[in-house]
Amino acid sequence: MYCSGSIPLTAEGVLVEGSIADKTRQCIANLQAVLEEAGSSIDKVVKVTIFLADMDSFAVSLLL
Predict the structure, then answer these.
(1) Which of 5, 26, 54, 58 could cysteine-pair with 16, CB 3.0–4.6 Å?
(2) Residues 6+ apart with CB under 8 A from 25
């Protein structure tokens, strides 16, 4: 399965505001939901590519 183009929207369609950590957590939750609906899981993910608009967010992304 190939997933692409996740943005930090809640299930209600609200765009998550706040820190890069908050937005990243929402994107990961969305990915997990898509994978589970397709009969897979987050544990089977082989590769993730993250594009950062601000390199100051890089250190935070390593902690997630």
Answers:
(1) 26
(2) 64
The 3-state secondary structure of the chain reads CCCCCCCCECCCCCECCCCHHHHHHHHHHHHHHHHHHCCCCHHHCCCCCCCCCCHHHHHHHHHC
Amino acid at 45: V
Rounded to whole angstroms, how far apart are CA atoms 41 and 36?
5
- Beta carbons of 19 and 60 less than 8 angstroms apart: yes
The whole-number pLDDT of residue 45 equals 94
Distance between CA atoms of residues 17 and 43, nearest Å: 27
Q: What is the mean pLDDT of residues 22-50?
A: 93
Q: Rounded distance, CA 33 to CA 24, Å?
A: 14
pTM higher than the cut 0.90: no
